[in-house]
Specification:
Helix content is 59%, strand content 0%. The protein contains six helices and no strands. The chain is an all-alpha fold. Helix 2 packs across helix 6 and helix 4 packs antiparallel against helix 6.
Length: 107
């Protein structure tokens, strides 16, 4: 049984890394121009009303955008924004935002 779990985990990791490698952060930057109005040009929103995307994990960003697209996650603003995104668009946007410097809190 442990070998099956290990194999499944390995396949999932391979799939996630293959998806990330197939993405194009430069294309994501170009596609993010619409997103900049709310999330900032580099994903660091200046408003508490809009989440910071910069520095988030690729898989998290892909999941969230996919959920907005499918309707699994509800938001009146994001649903129409994600509706026409292709899987490649989502991967490119996730790659771009994941490579941006997120907010660094000073202690």
């Amino acid at each position: 049984m442990d070998k099956k779990i290990l194999l499944a985990a390995g396949c999932a990791a391979l799939f996630a890394s293959a998806t990330a490698m197939a993405s194009d952060p430069a294309a994501g930057k170009e596609k993010s121009k619409t997103c900049a109005a709310c999330h900032g040009p580099d994903g660091n929103s200046q408003s508490a009303d809009f989440p910071r995307l910069a520095g988030q994990h690729v898989d998290y960003l892909m999941k969230v955008l996919g959920d907005y697209k499918s309707g699994a996650r509800k938001n009146a603003i994001m649903a129409p924004m994600a509706a026409n995104l292709s899987k490649r668009d989502i991967a490119d946007l996730a790659a771009y935002y994941s490579q941006q410097q997120g907010l660094v809190l000073k202690r």
